[in-house]
Amino acid sequence: QVQLVQSGAEVKKPGASVKVSCKASGYTFTSYDINWVRQATGQGLEWMGWMNPNSGNTGYAQKFQGRVTMTRNTSISTAYMELSSLRSEDTAVYYCALSSGGSSFDPWGQGTLVTVSS
Amino acid sequence: SYVLTQPPSVSVAPGKTARITCGGNNIGSKSVHWYQQKPGQAPVLVIYYDSDRPSGIPERFSGSNSGNTATLTISRVEAGDEADYYCQVWDSSSDHQGVVFGGGTKLTVL
Known about the structure:
The structure holds two protein chains of two kinds. In chain A, about 0% of the residues lie in helices and about 45% in strands. By secondary structure, chain A is mostly beta strands. In chain A, the strands form two sheets. In chain A, strands 2-10-9-4-5-6 form a six-stranded mixed β-sheet, with no helix packed on it. Helices cover about 0% and strands about 45% of the residues of chain B. In chain B, strands 1, 3, 4, 7, 8 and 9 form a six-stranded mixed β-sheet that branches. In chain B, strands 2-6-5 form a three-stranded antiparallel β-sheet, with no helix packed on it. By secondary structure, chain B is mostly beta strands. Classes of the chains: A mainly beta, B mainly beta.
């Protein structure tokens, strides 16, 4: 079955960067886009951007432009999301999720908690 | 940028019908997707392209979309349906194309 497994929780200091991984299985890695969505505690879902694993093309939400980078390693079917210049407001659970051509997100990874604290 | 508006909360008695709305400017011209999220879990797709159900989602879940409002309807509500629900669209109409989520609706089963 299609599955996305994310890396474990991270604790970072303000100003640092974090890189979260999302390992895909159960399908051809290059067939679907990978999106990243975050959720602060008690808050709603916030889309960060998408990446086409085949071409490497990306599209980022304006809010994160200049701070987020989405990459992939096709040899190990893994996508990455790196967020830089972290601040306390970036403390959230970060999810990866599959989509195709502007469709819905399904499935989702289990989420990775990133805590930014001095 | 495009905005989706959901009621913060909806309450319903078991066995009754819950309707969760998602308002947006001419949302009927867009495809709306709905997600269910239970505490401590990742979101799960329950309705896609306005009214289609993924395999494994009960027929009690249905969706509609017209004009300025999309609606997720849950019939014969069960205790296990208690969760947060989010609507989502892809916005390609503004300068900043991308995905938009509604603020979420907490469904409480009385």
